[in-house]
Structure formats: structure tokens, C-alpha cells
Amino acid sequence: MVERVDQQQTGRLGLAGWGFVLAWLSMVGVAVFCVVVTSASLVLVTVGIPLTLFTLPWLRGLADWHRVWTADHLGIPIARPYRPLPEGGALTKVRSVLTDRATWRDLLWVLVDGTAGVFLTLLPITFLLNAVWYAVALPIVVSIVPNTFNANYGLFDVTTVAGALATGIPIAAVSIALFWWTTRPIMRAYARMTRRMLAPAERDRLANRVAQLTESRAETVDTQAAELRRIERDLHDGAQARLVSLGMSLGMAEDLLASDPDAAQGLLAEAREATGLALAELRDLVRGIHPPVLADRGLDGAVRALALASPLPVEVSVDLPGRPPAPVESAMYFAVAETLTNAAKHSGATSAWIRLTYADGRLGVMVGDDGRGGARQPADGGLHGIERRLAAFDGTMMVASPVGGPTIVTMELPCVLSSVKTSPSSGTA
């Protein structure tokens, strides 16, 4: 797991405040631990089954919140390790979550977070409050109520304002220095501890990866079978039918050539027209398999062609230092085409944009529109089809589509570029 140190945005004061919040959440986590363990212990008497299914999302929700927090504020992402819930009844689901190692790691994390986590997260705010007390609050209290503290307070004389300042300023300076120099390392240590507890173990990660690849392979086989059936259907209903008609017209023209040359000439003209239509349908079919513009101009030119053909005005920005492999280009091309089609048909958008980039060995495309949002991913929908197409290349797709818009579809494919291009390009299609 790579730590994205460059993405740290939260300052020291913010981290100290968040540390206070995290300390309170640690106490909440201990309460959730007690509830979940109690519910799981009652599984054998039936009532624990619905209770476990009801309370376990609290535990996972709390862990997920910490995963998001560490990524957003400290640039340390933590992957989710949970197995998907199986199909079946409540007992099957409870058995699945209780045999999931990630569940027990979450419970162990709650205990560690409630002890070592509280200590770490409260240190920065403690240093800061200590400095404020000695530098500001203590002299004010002594000035308002003289002789509040006896001469033994802190082993120094603080019975007067001068004594309080002489005592408090050095201590406050040390506390501020500790706050300044240790806040970020302390919070990063907390984030690493959290990652160690909440990230998937290597064995679980490999098991999840195998399951994901198995599912992806099955979906790829189904997709390829469906694509072959589509090609067969298009050939049968289109070009094949026209070629059969062409053969019949030529046969009749051959029979009429000697007895009725005019009729034979008409049939030959029809045959020539049928030939043109058959060629056009074959070109369309080939275009659906691998568009010529993709082979000729690459993904950059093909995406721009899609933007020009879209009924929406589409702004295109491309920053590719080379050309991806042909299968990757084809998969991303059709994914972008499907996304633009969805935006034009269903979003109610007035404009759209495409960002095509390459970084860290991954080809990334973002397609956005200013429509009404609320996009969903039904199992038989176009977005799910895009996800299946990308999964065949170990790619990913994420959809952000709040109600009211905008909708942003982010797609990534791992690949190696084959050639070098010197400068990015952008424009409006």
C-alpha cells in the first residue's frame, strides 16, 4: 500500500481537533464492540441472528469511516477486506460474516483503538491545551483571584501574575514545540496502526483477488459469448440475407438474359444495389468489432470522433504519452462510447466532458456531464456492462452521481504504453 504523503491537506490544528473527535469515536467503538459481541453470542438462541445482522453494519461503518479519514486527511488509504454477502437467508449471511477474518480483525481493532488509539489521538490536543493553560489561562486566573494556588503549584511560585508568567511561558514554549513537531508524526502513527489492523491481510487479499479474477473471467466468457451471438445475428439478419437475395437476383437475371434483356438488366441493377447495401452492413459490423478510426488514429482520435458524433457539446482533454495496446484501446473506446450515449439519452445534460490521462501504469478516463444525476447500476444496465468489459482487463469503474448532478464516471485500466508523445492536447468537440 502506497502512502500518498503529497496529498496531506489537514494542518496541525485540524489534526489536533480531529484527534479529539477520534478519541470520542474510540469510546463509541468500545460500545459497538460490546453490542456486536453480545449479539453474536446470542446466535445459538435465534434472536442473535437478526441482532447480529442489525448491529454488525455499525462496526463496519465505523471502520469504513476511519478508512476514509486516514486517506482524506493523512494520505494513507486502507482497502476494505470484507467478503461480499452470499445469497440466501439470514443464517447464511450471519455464518458468512462471523467466519470472515475481517470481522474479527475489526473487533480487535476496536479494542486497540480504545486504548492505544485514545492515547495517541489525545496527545496533540493535550500539548496544545497545556500551552494555552500555562501561557494564557493560568496568569488570568492568578490575576483575577490572587493566591488561588499555593507556592507549591507545579514546584514553582505562581501566587502572583509575574510568577505565573515566569513559570508558564517556558512550559508553554515546550508544549507548543511538542505540538508543532509531533502532531503529524503522532497522527500518522495512529493512521498506520489503524491500517495495520483494518487493511486486509495478505492471505485474505490474495483470496479476494482470486475470487475477483474468477468472477471477472466468468463474466468475460459470458460477454464474449453474447458478442459472438450478436455478430452471428447481425450477419444472419443483415449481410447474409442480402447476399442470399443477391444470389437469387443474379440467378433470375441469368435465366432472363436471353429472353428478356431489359428485365435482366433491371435485376442486375437491383443486385448491384444489394451489393452496396451488404458492403455497408459489413462495414458497420466491423466498426462494431474494432472501429477503423481506432486503428487509424488511436484512442485520442477515436475519443474525439465520439465527441463530435455526440448530440451534446463535449469538451475533450487528452494527456497520453504514448499509445495503449489495441485490446485496451478497444475496451476503453467502447466504454467511453457507452457512457456518452447514456449521458445523451438519460441525463438531461446540456454538455459533457472527457479527460483522458495516463499515470502510474494506469490509463484513466473521466466522463462527466451536467445532467440531473441519480445514475444507477442495474445488473442488466449499460453501466454494469461497462464494468464487466473493463473487469476483463483488470480495470475498475466508479460512478459519482448525486441527485441533481453532476455525474462523473471514472474508469481505469492497467497497461503499458507503446510509444512516446511529447505534449498533451485539449479542445472542445
Structural class: alpha+beta
Gap between N and C termini: 39 Å
Low-confidence stretches: 1-8, 422-426
Q: What's the helix-strand series?
A: HHHHHHHHEHEEHEEE
Percent of residues in helices: 55-70%
Compute the average pLDDT. 79
The largest sheet is:
6 strands, mixed
Shape: elongated
Report strand %: 5-15%
Instruction: Tell me the total number of β-strands.
Output: 6
Total of DSSP H or I helical runs spanning 4+ residues: 10
- Tell me the strand order in the biggest sheet: 4-5-3-2-1-6
CA radius of gyration = 33 Å
Provide the fold topology.
Layout: H1 12-41, H2 48-74, H3 90-98, H4 101-144, H5 161-198, H6 202-256, H7 261-289, H8 292-309, E1 314-319, H9 326-346, E2 352-359, E3 362-369, H10 382-391, E4 396-400, E5 407-414, E6 425-428
Parallel strand pairs: 1-2
Antiparallel strand pairs: 1-6, 2-3, 3-5, 4-5
Helix pairs in contact: 1-2, 1-4, 1-5, 2-3, 2-5, 4-5, 6-7, 8-9, 9-10
Short summary of the structure?
The chain has 429 residues and is α+β, with helices and mostly antiparallel strands.
Explain what this protein looks like in three dimensions:
The chain is α+β, with helices and mostly antiparallel strands and 429 residues long. It is built from ten helices and six strands, in the order H-H-H-H-H-H-H-H-E-H-E-E-H-E-E-E. It has helices at residues 12-41, 48-74, 90-98, 101-144, 161-198, 202-256, 261-289, 292-309, 326-346, 382-391, and strands at residues 314-319, 352-359, 362-369, 396-400, 407-414, 425-428. It has a six-stranded mixed sheet, with helices on one face. The radius of gyration is 33 Å and the shape is elongated. The chain starts with 11 loop residues before the first helix and ends with a strand.
